[in-house]
Amino acid sequence: MNYNRSRYEEKITLKRSELKNNESKKKDIDRQIEIRLNAIKMKKNEIQALSNRLDGMNERIEELFAENKNIKANTDQLISLRKDQLSKPAGADAVALLLYSNTIQQNIAYFKGINDQIYLLKTELKDGQFRKEKINIEMDSIMKEVERTKLMKDGFDANIDDIRAQIERLESEKNLIGNLRVIQAPQVSLKPVGPKKSADHRTCCPGKFFLLHDAGLFPRVSFFSGHKRAKATEQKIELVPGSKKAFISLTVATKKSGEATRIHRNPGSCFPEDRRQK
Q: How many domains does the chain have?
C-alpha cells in the first residue's frame, strides 16, 4: 500500500515540477509581450511626434509660399514704379530711382532665401514621411511577434490546465488508495487444497483403457472378468531372451489373495498368457 502511495507521490512531484516549469515559461512570455507592447507604444508616440512635426513643416511651407507670393507682388509693383519714374519727360528723380532699385534687389534676395527654406523644409518633410513609414513597418513586425508570442502563451495555458487536471486526478487516486485498509494479512494454508486425483482418474482411466485396448496394447476385457478385485501395479515391455521379439508384461495384484499375477502378451496378439508369480 505504501509502495503504491509512493509511486503516486513521485508522479505528483514530477507533474508539479513540470507545472512550475511551464508557469515560469509563461511568465517569460508575459514579460516578452509586455516589452514588445511597450516598444509599440514608444513607436506610436514617435509617430505622433513626427506627424506633429511634419504637419508643422507643411504649415510653414504654406506660409513661406504665401510670403513669397507677397514679395513677388511687391517687387513687381516696385519695378512698375521705377519704369514710370524713368518715363517722366522732366527727368527721373535720382533718389527715387535709387530707392526703387535697392528695394527691388532686397526683395529678390529675400524671395530667393524663402525658396531655399521651402526646399529644405520639403526635403526634411520627405525624410520625415519616409521615417514615419519605416516606423509603421517596425510596428507591424513587432505586432506580429506579439501575436506569435500570444499563441505560445495560449499553448502554455492549455498545458498548465492539463497538468493541473492530471495532478488533481493523481491526488484523488492517491487519496482513494489511502482510504483502503487491510482487514487481515494474507496467510499460507498449512493444508493446501490439491486437485481431486480420484475424480480425475475415474474420468480419464476408462478412456485410456479403451484406447490401449483398441491399439492392441491391453488384454481383452473378458480376461479381467474373473479378476474384478485385481489392481494393475506395473506394466512394461520386455524382450524375449535370445530373441528380438518383445512382449508386454502387466503385473496384477489381487486384494483377496495378495498374490501377483504377471500377464505376458505378444503385441501382435489379442490373447494374454497368464503367468502367476507370488
A: 2
* Amino acid code (one letter) for 39: A
Domain that holds residue 260: 215-277
Instruction: Judge if 58 and 119 occupy the same domain.
Output: yes
What does the block give as the cell for 105?
Answer: 534687389
Q: How far apart are CA 217 and CA 236, in angstroms?
A: 11
> Which residue(s) pair with 277 in the sheet?
260
Amino acid at 74: N
Decide if 189 is inside a domain: no
pTM: predicted TM-score of the whole model, two decimal places = 0.51
Strand order in 246-254's β-sheet?
A: 230-239, 246-254, 260-265, 273-277
Q: Are residues 29 and 153 in the same domain?
A: yes
Tell me the C-alpha distance between 4 and 8, whole Å: 6
What is the C-alpha separation between 227 and 229, in angstroms, rounded? 5
**Grid coordinates 496467510 are at which residue?**
187
Q: What are phi and psi of 253, to 5 degrees?
A: -105, 130
d(CA 14, CA 173): 16
DSSP state of 73: H
The string over 37-65, giving b where at least 16 C-beta atoms fall within 10 Å of a residue's C-beta and e elsewhere, is eebbeebeeebeeeeeebeebeeebeebe
Asked whether residue 208 is assigned to any structural domain, the reply reads no
Same domain, yes or no: 127 and 220: no
Mind listing the pLDDT tens digit for each residue in 120-171?
999 999 999 999 999 999 999 999 999 999 999 999 899 999 999 999 998 8
Same domain, 166 and 247: no
Write out pLDDT tens, residues 1-15: 566 778 888 888 999
**Are 72 and 157 part of one and the same domain?**
yes
C-alpha cell at 214: 483398441
Q: How many CB atoms lie within 10 A of CB 88?
A: 10
